Request: fold
Amino acid sequence: MKSTKHHHQSQKKQPKKQLHKYARFSGIAFQMIVIIVLGAYAGHKLDEAYPNENHLFTIICLLLAVAISMYYVIKQVLKTPNKP
Reply:
């Protein structure tokens, strides 16, 4: 009887763990979007302040923001335990 009770409790914990993982990764995705949007905004403002033909500041800031956000995502994913 005890093993059935333990099995039932572990089934209850499983959805909570899944929900926690989804919440964590959706939070990471949101932060990634914020970093990229801030990079685009900064680049746009720099292009307004220092006009150029090719919007170089926007391109550079966007690429930098994507690189920073990817670094952040990889760092967070590696920090996540791989328990089933």
Summary: The two ends are 25 Å apart (CA to CA).
